[in-house]
Design brief:
alpha/beta, Nucleotidyltransferase, domain 5, about 30% helix, 2 domains, 8 strands
Length: about 150
C-alpha cells in the first residue's frame, strides 16, 4: 500500500510517497514557508510516481511535538487531501517515529528520543518496544535553564 507522509513541525518541510520499498521524497528548509511548499511537494511526488492521489492508501502527518503552526499546516493539508480523495489520515508522533527509526536501524527496543523545542527547552519521551508496538514510558518538556 502506498502512503503519503507529511511533516512541517520543524524548520524543514518534508513530504514522501512510498510503499515501504520505493520512496519518492522532498525536503526543503522552509523557515516559515511550509504553507507555500507542502502542496506543490505532494503534487510533484504524485507526478513522479505516475499515480493519482486516489491510488494512495492513506496519508500520515507528523503530529508533533513541534511548531504549533507547522503541525496545523501538515494536519490541514493531510485532512484536505484525504477528504477530497476519500483517504484515511493518521497522525504520527515525531518522537515515536524517531524510536521506530532507532529500532529499524540499530535494533533498539528502549529509546529516549529528544527534540529541540527552542527557547532553551527540549521535548523528550522514553519508549519501550514490546515486540509489536512502542509503549510510552515517559514524556515531558524539559527546560535547559534561564
Amino acid at each position: 500500500m502506498r502512503i503519503i507522509a507529511l511533516d512541517a513541525s520543524t524548520e524543514l518541510c518534508t513530504a514522501a510517497l512510498g510503499d515501504g520499498t520505493v520512496w519518492h521524497e522532498r525536503a526543503e528548509h522552509a523557515g516559515q514557508r511550509h504553507s507555500e511548499l507542502l502542496l506543490p511537494m505532494v503534487r510533484e511526488l504524485v507526478a513522479e510516481a505516475r499515480i493519482a492521489l486516489s491510488d494512495v492508501g492513506g496519508i500520515a502527518f507528523g503530529a508533533g511535538p513541534g511548531s504549533f503552526t507547522g503541525l496545523r499546516i501538515a494536519c490541514g493539508v493531510a485532512q484536505g487531501l484525504a477528504f477530497g480523495a476519500g483517504l484515511t489520515v493518521v497522525g504520527i508522533s515525531t518522537l515515536e517515529a524517531m524510536a521506530e527509526a532507532a529500532r529499524v536501524q540499530h535494533g533498539a527496543t528502549r529509546v529516549v528520543a529528544a527534540l529541540d523545542a527552542r527557547m532553551r527547552e527540549i521535548y523528550i519521551a522514553a519508549y519501550e518496544y514490546d515486540g509489536a508496538r512502542w509503549r510510552l514510558e515517559h514524556r515531558s518538556m524539559v527546560a535547559n535553564g534561564p
